[in-house]
Amino acid sequence: MDRNQLIGIVLILAMLVGYQLLVPKPAPEKQAAQQTQTTKPTTASGVAAIDKGVDSTGQQAPDSAALTAQFGNFASVATGQARDIIIENNDIKVTFTTQGGRVKEVVLKKYKAFDQKPLVLIDEQSSTTLLELPTNQGKVDLHKLYYQTTTQNGTVSGQPQQVVFRAEVAPGQSVEQVYTIPAEGYVLDYDLKLNGLSNTVGNGDIRFLWEDKMRQYENDLANNRRAATINYLTADEDFEKLTEGESSQEATAEKPVQWFTIKHKYFLSGFVAKNSPLTKASFKALVDPADSSVVKTAIADVTMPIADVKAGKGQYKFFYGPNDFQLLGSVAPEFDQNVYLGYSVLKPINKYFFVPVFNFLEKFIANYGLLIIALVVFVKLILTPLTYKSYISMAKMRVLQPELNEMKERVGDDMAKQQSEQMKLYQEVGVSPLSGCVPVLATMPILFSLFMLFPNLIELRQKSFLWANDLSTYDAFITFPTIPFIGSHLSLFTVLMTISSIAYAYYNNQTTPTQPGPVNMKAMSYVFPLMFMFVLNSYPAGLTFYYFVSNVVTIAQQLLIRRFVDEDKIKAVLDENRRKNAAGEGKKPGGFQALLQKQLAAAEEARKQADEAQRRAKSKK
């Protein structure tokens, strides 16, 4: 290599290094813009469009031929600029968009998520919709078109406000979507109109697809997933729902559907047909265990009768709001069934007693912990006659306890003979062994009704009392790594409920004689509260607080009744019954007593035959 070649190589390297050092690099934004300019634009349906340059907004405009191929006669309204319109009332803030003429976002103004952020029920990231219209040239998604509106942002006061979205397809031909927002409340009336499009619209109904990636609004994700589902009502007013739980579910309605709701634990997004029901409907609630950011993915796929829309009867409702029993009854038939009030046997107790009483007490008591105490006292006062009758029955058993002890010593460990002799004694003194059980059993439906009601009461949501920040969920005063059957926390109200249940069991065991039988019921009365502690540890603090207060009030109630009950008088009455029955002066037994007498006679006869057979067998030997 000669000197000239060496100098040339050095100069070339110097130029390259100088270029890298002296010439500024383009900003990342410009690089992205340059890359975007070399990329073909893509339409909303994912079909690549032909490059036609840029429009006034700096974005590429799709080729008209591509638009015509995709949207047919609707190509003229397939492009445009999206604009948001925000309308709100006292309860909700709704954001509409001219791209699709649809609801883009809904915020419930009176509620917060568990992390105290605004409660956004739906938005563009979580909720997508499709409104597919059949035409002579194919199917067109009306939610991909661009609409015009004269409505401006504002707040509804006084009269309801209409928001009209109009897409002018051709002179005299348009699609209209009209929303009516009330001055208060959560129901949006929705009308869909096809003006002058009879020759354009094809056969078949309109498909409405709604997919919602359900957000987490409560602190317990597992509990949220168990409660999240899709409910719907058929044209025959049969209420149906996808099975609640933490697994994926799907169903196809066998009959037309009047309405459906995407149900969170305490909130709903719903769609209601005012006139003809939705002709076809399928629903899915999908769970991805690996994705903790989504409770469930709810998918509702329904069809709207096109005949109604053509006839100007395409009238519907959207509901975005709380799952509050007091609000839902006026939305649509059976719409309040979105609030689960228990099994059919228990539902009337909640619907016609506890819910009205709870809402009545709300008018006078602002603190919900005190309200629960008032509810307990009210229920206990109503049940006082049953409680008194149960106590008198236990008092009779205590009076008879010495005789029962003598009977056990005489009979020995033969359980059959013990029960037979015990029944004879009860018959002699005129005591029914069921008289103490019936009052207790009568209170069981109330306890089970509350067990169903409290987890679904939105009134308790984010209401604090003492150390519990939210009575609608557990009060975790201690947290720890997950333990089987317990979880990752311990609820203090559940612990207090368990302690009070054991105390009540101890009190009962001191005043109730031991019953013969293979199972020691006194020992079991201590085991059951411990079992329920594990079951109720993750239940609402309001429920376990109610049970705790109920136990305390019951013990106090029985101690008070005990002051007014004279067991010497009870013993005198039982002795008089014994004398009358022995002399044949007693009342002829009826009902359960008569049945008991027949069973005792049959048991005694069977025992005599068994003894006789045993005696004969021994004599033969």
3D structure, described in words:
Keywords: Cell membrane, Chaperone, Coiled coil, Membrane, Protein transport, Transmembrane, Transmembrane helix, Transport. Among the domains are: 67-339, Beta-galactosidase, Chain A, domain 5 (Distorted Sandwich), CATH 2.70.98.90; 358-466 and 542-583, no CATH class. The protein is elongated, with a radius of gyration of 37 Å. 28% of the residues are buried. Mean pLDDT is 81; it is low at 21-59. The chain is α+β, with helices and mostly antiparallel strands and 621 residues long. Helix 7 packs across helix 8 (368-382) and helix 9 packs across helix 14 (541-563). Helix content is 40%, strand content 23%. The termini are far apart. The longest helix has 29 residues, at 592-620. The protein has an eight-stranded antiparallel beta sheet with strand order 8-9-10-19-16-15-12-13. Strands 6-5-11-18-17-14 form a six-stranded antiparallel beta sheet. The chain has a five-stranded mixed beta sheet with strand order 4-3-2-1-7, with no helix packed on it.
Features:
621 residues; alpha+beta; Beta-galactosidase, Chain A, domain 5; eight-stranded antiparallel beta sheet; six-stranded antiparallel beta sheet
Mean pLDDT: 81
Give the CATH topology of the domain at 67-339: Beta-galactosidase, Chain A, domain 5
By DSSP, the count of extended strands is 21
| Low-confidence regions | 21-59
Please tally the helical runs, counting DSSP H or I stretches of 4 or more residues. 16
CATH class of the domain at 67-339: Mainly Beta
- Computed CA radius of gyration, to the nearest angstrom: 37 Å
Can you list the strand order of the major beta sheet? 8-9-10-19-16-15-12-13
Shape-level CATH architecture of the domain at 67-339: Distorted Sandwich
Transmembrane segments: 368-388, 478-507, 519-539
Family: Belongs to the OXA1/ALB3/YidC family. Type 1 subfamily.
Subunit structure: Interacts with the Sec translocase complex via SecD. Specifically interacts with transmembrane segments of nascent integral membrane proteins during membrane integration.
GO molecular function, one term: membrane insertase activity
